[in-house]
Specification:
49% of the residues are buried. The chain has a 4-stranded mixed sheet with strand order 1-4-5-8. A hairpin with an 8-residue loop joins strand 6 and strand 7 (207-218). The chain is built from 11 helices and 10 strands. The mean pLDDT is 93. The chain is α+β, with helices and mostly antiparallel strands.
């Protein structure tokens, strides 16, 4: 990695412990060899989870003494995304798919699940989205009916990362009407009545649909209390959004470094491409947008770490929205600078171009983030959005 980007970490925003963490993560990642994804990336994802578990990095996906260190988590994502698209995905899903359990799961649930998340022996997934419930998470239609000592769950989920790959799912289902009628359940993948089907994607990413037919889940697998589902989902997504922005920054940083390398070597017009003022302008715009994105990301992460019990909807939404949109522009510029080779399948810029597009949708589309920001500014008493 190019040290010209690391001046950010010298700011008072970061502690000496943060800087030690950055050094450790960089050294650890440099020794890892992530597999090249195939098709939807199922095998590469599973192998990457195990690799990250052995490296010790997955401990940063699980809360230590009650609260997730979001700064440490976000730093891991930025650095991982720079090196490996599939490695970043494997890392973040261990957090996203386990955070509801970390926040409100029973002691028995935590003891049976979280050590495996950290070791990479278990793989997590977060099952919220449905055909009619995407940005409007309160529209969940999957039903959970209490019968004796169990819940019987029927319904469908779609666009679920790690569908068919995960060993455990956090499933959100309706136990009553209204926004406060959604509950969360801890569901092992082998549970009878649960089936998964893969959905082809534009970039190697295990994504698919889940179907529940008379799936029986013990009452003990309820996460928190009945009706806590949306609150848990929003708490999870709010912490995840700065990390999505961090991944976008990792992708963008890699793209800029690839563009600088190409422009400094590519002979053109009696010199090299980097001599051209238009090229210099493109690079200057890109690195400024990257710096602004990273500052927003780490402001949001520090806000959560300083006051974990408070809501930080605006800073979280600003970070995710700006960073993912900026990264899309940055990677597009860098691919433009690369010319013809930039669109070839064996070019990292082509991989980054495909990888960045979904981040503008995951964990709340850019338009949803703008609504969250505006409603915070206007002080409206409205239901939070996913």
């Amino acid at each position: 990695m190019n040290t010209r980007f690391d001046d950010l970490f010298a700011l008072p925003l970061f502690s000496d412990a943060d800087r030690d963490h950055i050094k450790m993560v960089n050294e650890t990642i440099s020794g890892l060899r992530f597999p090249k994804p195939e098709a939807n990336g199922e095998k590469a994802l599973t192998a990457s989870v195990k690799l990250l578990g052995k490296s010790g990095l997955l401990k940063h996906t699980v809360a230590d003494r009650g609260e997730l260190n979001l700064t440490a988590f976000v730093l891991c994502r930025e650095l991982l995304a720079y090196h490996s698209i599939i490695g970043d995905l494997a890392f973040v899903m261990q957090s996203l798919g386990s955070l509801p359990v970390q926040i409100a799961g029973s002691d028995a649930m935590k003891k049976s699940f979280l050590p495996g998340v950290i070791s990479g022996d278990l793989t997590a997934a977060f099952a919220l989205s449905e055909p009619n419930a995407g940005s409007d998470a309160a529209a969940v239609e999957t039903r959970a009916e209490k019968r004796g000592n169990s819940y019987i769950i029927n319904g469908n989920k779609r666009l679920i990362s790690n569908a068919g790959v995960a060993t455990h799912y956090v499933v959100f289902a309706r136990t009553a009407e209204g926004p406060k009628g959604v509950s969360a359940f801890f569901v092992p993948a082998e549970t009878k009545g649960l089936s998964a089907r893969q959905t082809p994607t534009m970039t190697p990413h295990p994504l698919g649909q889940l179907e529940f037919k008379e799936m029986e889940v013990p009452i003990a697998n309820l996460i928190g209390k009945e009706g806590d589902g949306l609150k848990l989902a929003f708490q999870t997504l709010a912490r995840g959004r700065p990390s999505v922005g961090a991944a976008a920054c990792g992708f963008a940083r890699r793209a800029i470094e690839e563009a600088i390398r190409h422009a400094s070597r590519r002979k053109a017009f009696g010199g090299v491409l980097a001599d051209q003022q238009l090229v210099q302008s493109m690079l200057a715009t890109s690195v400024t947008e990257l710096d602004a994105s990273r500052l927003l990301i780490y402001r949001a992460a520090k806000a959560f770490d300083m006051a974990p019990k408070e809501r930080h909807d605006r800073s979280s939404a600003e970070a995710k929205w700006y960073a993912t949109e900026a990264a899309q522009r940055i990677i597009d510029r860098c691919q433009q600078l690369a010319g013809g080779p930039g669109v070839l399948d064996n070019c990292i810029l082509a991989d980054l171009y495909r990888a960045i597009r979904p981040l503008r949708i995951y964990e709340g589309a850019s338009e949803v983030q703008q609504l969250v920001i505006a409603r915070d500014l206007l002080g409206e008493n409205v239901t939070p959005m996913a």
